[in-house]
TrEMBL record:
PROSITE patterns in the record: DEGV (PS51482)
Coiled coil regions in record: none
Protein name, as recorded: DegV family EDD domain-containing protein
Gene3D superfamilies named among the record's database cross-references: 3.30.1180.10, 3.40.50.10170
Species in which this protein is naturally found: Fundicoccus ignavus
Record's keyword annotation contains Electron transport: no
Taxon lineage: Bacteria, Bacillati, Bacillota, Bacilli, Lactobacillales
Molecular functions per Gene Ontology: lipid binding
Role summary: May bind long-chain fatty acids, such as palmitate, and may play a role in lipid transport or fatty acid metabolism.
Transferase listed as a keyword: no
UniProt keywords, alphabetically: Lipid-binding
Amino acid sequence: MKTAIIVDSTASLAEDLANHPDIYQINLLVTYANGDVITDTTDPVVLKEFYHRITKDKELPKTSQPEPVHLYKLLKEVVDKGYQSVICIHLSDKISGTFKTSSMITDEFRDALNIYMIDSKGTSFVIESMVKQTLHMLEKGLSGEVIQAKLEWLADNSTIYVMFENLENLVKGGRLGTISAFLGTALRIKPIVVFDQGEVKVFEKVRTTKKVVRRWQELVREAVKDYPNGIDIVFAHGDAETEIIEIKELIQAEFPQFEYRVGYLTPVLGVHGGKGCKGMGLIPKVTLD
């Protein structure tokens, strides 16, 4: 059955996936206080400029979900190209309205398409890993219903941990309470934030980056024990490439057998993460039977 995969731009797809003929993307937007609008992107030039600008501007940019008309046009294109099924994978429903909007629009196409909606309960490279695993499942001939169930299992079992240099952006964006931000600044604590079933919550509070890295290493060891079928280990950052690569290399030295991915958080995610944030995602491998 010919199947299209639709993701949103926070997935940070690698070039080979972005250019895959069966993978399509809808883009979120960032609007600066002066009215400038940029499309969420993985373009390195735009990313560098974005992270430089958010440290200079007094007011935090606004983020917005994809324009509904763009998804509507995309679904019409998918139907016209002869696809019978579409799998939509979006960033957490708890931090964006993208999943709800996509669900409403795709409902209008249920007479023409088999539609499988996935709330990733995460974002960034977690979605990218889901896309790669979806392609493997399609190649193995798994049904849409089985793929949906396995992706929902992935959403429930994948975990994202993030360390912030500054919690102000999370508070301004309504993603974290002001008390946590005050404590982090006043006591020089580096909170590890976790995506818990799609919600952003404080996981632990530590005082140094070294202690954060040690804790991440422990979390990887726990995941390796919990998921014997293997895991993807991914790292995303807000213009902190040197530091995140050093962390990746420490963990990779202990676990060289796994797939690793390092890259920028897109502007939409960077608005809330801020410059210097660093994240690690642990994504289990699904079984292909």
